[in-house]
Design brief:
Blueprint (H helix, E strand, L loop, with lengths): L9 E5 L4 H16 L8 E6 L5 H15 L8 H6 L1 E5 L5 H13 L7 E5 L6 H10 L7 E5 L7 H12 L7 E3 L7 H11 L13 E9 L8 H26 L8 H13 L9 E7 L1 E3 L2 E3 L2 H5 L8 E6 L11 E6 L6 E8 L18 E7 L3 E9 L10 E9 H4 L8 H11 L8 H20 L5 E4 L6 H8 L8
Helix pairs in contact: 1-2, 1-12, 4-5, 6-13, 8-9, 8-13, 9-13
This protein binds 6-O-phosphono-beta-D-glucopyranose.
The site of 6-O-phosphono-beta-D-glucopyranose (BG6) has 2 residues, from loops.
Length: about 475
């Protein structure tokens, strides 16, 4: 934490009765509290439309904690619940914000600042900021945290960013991409920049291509309207996958400082080459089975036909010196056979094989970074199969495997929102997305949508439980590349 930042002693949660709050935010805060990581002065004021007393809000929070927080992490739950209070608010009226301000003041004077977390529909961002401004809740010691979706394209994202910028300078705006809060995503930076091994070969001279897969087994999960408007490109590629790509491709920042890290990421995002429709594949799942369970098709879940993609694969390029000619294959989808997020870095062949005349087959090295559910790093190496070699030398690929949980037994592995909420309270911005990054992400994604429109691209169907349409396999195979499965 930079010394200049003070930890906020007020946290204002908008959307406090919503799904994210109940599943992630309240449990994460309670877990931080149980570990003594929240200052005793921190008071949490929840707000949402529903009329509720403080007691009713605490009861709702208790139920959420009992449902979503494992038993062993609920120590001190009663103390945590005592931090909570609640004020109903209709964000579309200014008067509501005066009442909210009174409630905030009831909690006593803040000495070290307020953090505000907006987990509401984006359509409420503008009115909420205006209301907060009117009620004097946007002072110099207030920081603003925004949860996605931050727009549906560059234009709408600029509208949101402008509305926020009207009340908060960029160094007090915290845009969440929860992938950045994941332990293994941060470990990518450690892997790249805390080891001498990789950096000298982390470029087009030694790397053939990179694959980034974010596969999910879930379908619509009740988010019908949201998802059908968004689709896989906007829901997953625009944010999480591009952040992963940026972390893989960025130049070494000079420090872990927020400006240094984000400056390097944005350079990568701006260097992304415009993608042609022919370099992409889109798909939509049909009824199938996942891990033995029958699941309905997207159109069945939706109750109508739709052109929204639930799968996309993209061949991307970063047009800079380091990555010249190295494709980044991205793939994400719902209702795929397993939940897996991983990055595969495939290296080039050795320039000359001394074993070739002896019949040995060689495979290029691969570095596989498992982000979830398995958190592990595996480097495939060629090794000699033991034997006297009377009929030639035999080589085989063997993995050098590190399972992170085994390497750090006894160390608590925290969920993304614990880390991000703590950073927000401390005012540490490195793991939050800066405006220029978001805008570069949208610009690239918007161009893909434009290309799809121009080519009249419609998603191809795939059976739930498969790895997407067969053309996704072809997209890689055209280049002699096989997706890692
Ligand atoms: C969200 C998307 O941002 O990320 C969801 O809106 C998706 O559609 C989720 O399921 C995936 O997050 P995680 O942490 O489960 O990989």
């Amino acid at each position: 934490m930079p010394e200049t930042q003070l930890s906020a002693d007020r946290l204002l949660l908008f959307g406090a009765t919503g799904d994210l709050s109940r599943r992630m935010l309240l449990p994460s805060l309670c877990a931080l509290d149980a570990d003594g990581l929240l200052s005793t002065d921190l008071k949490i004021i929840g707000t949402a439309r529903s009329d509720m007393s403080d007691i009713e809000f605490r009861n709702m929070a208790r139920e959420a904690l009992e449902q979503y927080l494992p038993d062993e992490r609920r120590g001190g739950m009663a103390d945590f619940l005592n931090r909570l209070s609640y004020q109903a608010l209709d964000a579309s009226t200014i008067e509501g914000f005066d009442t909210l301000a009174r409630k905030v003041h009831e909690a006593g004077p803040s000495h070290t600042g307020t953090a505000i977390f907006l987990s509401t529909a984006p359509s409420l961002f503008g009115p909420t900021i205006a209301g907060l401004k009117h009620a004097g809740l946007t002072g110099d010691d207030v920081r603003m945290c925004l949860e996605k979706p931050l727009g549906t394209d560059l234009e709408s994202s600029c509208v949101i960013n402008d509305a926020v910028a009207d009340a908060f300078p960029e160094d007090r705006i915290f845009r969440i991409d929860h992938y950045l809060g994941k332990e293994t995503v941060q470990n990518l930076l450690a892997l790249r920049f805390a080891n001498i091994l990789f950096e000298p070969i982390w470029n087009s001279n030694y790397i053939d291509h990179v694959q980034i897969t974010v596969a999910e087994t879930v379908g619509l999960e009740g988010r019908v309207a949201f998802y059908d408007d968004a689709g896989a490109l906007r829901d997953m590629v625009q944010n999480h996958m591009l952040q992963l790509l940026a972390l893989v491709a960025m130049e070494p920042p000079t420090s872990f400082d927020a400006t240094a890290v984000r400056d390097e990421k944005v350079k990568v995002l701006r260097a992304l080459r415009k993608v042609l429709a022919s370099e992409t594949v889109t798909g939509q799942y049909r009824a199938g089975a996942i891990q033995g369970l029958a699941v309905p098709g997207y159109d069945d879940e939706l109750g109508k036909e739709s052109d929204t993609e639930t799968f996309t694969a993209i061949k991307a390029h970063v047009d800079n010196w380091r990555w010249k000619g190295v494709p980044f294959y991205l793939r994400t989808g719902k209702r795929l056979p397993e939940r897996v997020t991983e990055i595969v870095v495939k290296f080039r062949d050795v320039p000359h094989s001394i074993f070739e005349d002896m019949g040995a087959k060689m495979l290029p090295n691969r570095l596989i970074i498992g982000i979830q559910p398995e958190e592990n790093i595996s480097l495939s190496l060629m090794a000699k199969v033991p034997g006297l070699g009377q009929d030639g030398v035999r080589l085989r690929e063997v993995p050098l495997d590190i399972a992170m949980p085994d390497a750090f037994v006894g160390q608590h592995r925290r969920i993304a929102y614990e880390r991000l909420l703590l950073d927000l309270i401390h005012g540490e911005q490195t793991l939050f997305v800066r405006r220029d990054e978001v805008e570069a992400q949208w610009q690239w994604v918007d161009a893909i949508r434009t290309a799809w429109d121009a080519a009249d691209t419609k998603p191809q169907t795939y059976t739930a439980g498969s790895w997407g349409p067969s053309s996704a396999i072809a997209l890689a195979e055209r280049d002699g590349v096989t997706w890692h499965e």
